[in-house]
Amino acid sequence: TPPLPSQDPSGSSTSPGSVSRLVGAPGADVTRKSRTCKAAAPLAWVPTLAAPRTLAVYFNQTPAAKVGQVGAVALYVLNKGSLDPAITAIDLLLQTASTQQQQWATMYTGGQGQRPQLTCPGLNHFPLSAAALAAVQPQLTSAEVLAAEVVGVRLHVNEDHLTNKADLPHLAAVGLKLLQT
Q: Are 125 and 73 in contact (CB under 8 A)?
């Protein structure tokens, strides 16, 4: 069993299913060994069976990507699991220049029928709409939203009761797909 986030706050555990499996781009071992959609804890992050099933990823890129530069949140899925939707929400952690405060903003909400749409194994893009993001951040102007830095992503995995980790999604990478400039 991978350590719970509270047991591994630095994300340094290397046990199967641990969050360290998400660091960096998917390696050759991921693309070579994952030719079919199946449970792959040694290569991926696997949520806990107990709720809550959330994952917060923070980016250390300098300079940080701005909302206006991000086209999508990208997830490399090795196993879809049995839940539908597998991913119930994706939030971005935004930092605005004017306040220097960080705040979470929901950019995606999953619904029934998502699971069959996921590419597995493979890269899945969840498009970011700056206009929709601005709508859920009424205290910010559209220009402030576009200029906000994206410093993290939080995934919410379906919390329906399960007894087998193979029924959970297995993720090998979380990242941002930047727009071409």
A: yes
Check if the beta carbon of residue 40 is closer than 8 Å to that of residue 165.
no
Domain that holds residue 125: 19-178
Residue pLDDT, tens place only, 70-90: 999 999 999 999 999 999 999
Q: What is the helix (H) or strand (E) element at residue 29, kind and residue range?
A: helix 28-33
Determine which helix (DSSP H) or strand (DSSP E) holds 114, and give its type and residue range. helix 114-117
The domain total for the chain is 1
pLDDT, tens digit, for every residue of 93-123? Answer: 999 987 778 999 999 999 999 999 999 999 9
CATH of residue 24: 2.60.120
- Please give the Cα distance from 168 to 44 (Å, whole number): 11
Please check whether residue 1 lies inside any domain of the structure: no
CA 51, CA 81: separation in Å to the nearest integer? Answer: 16
Residue 14 within a domain: no
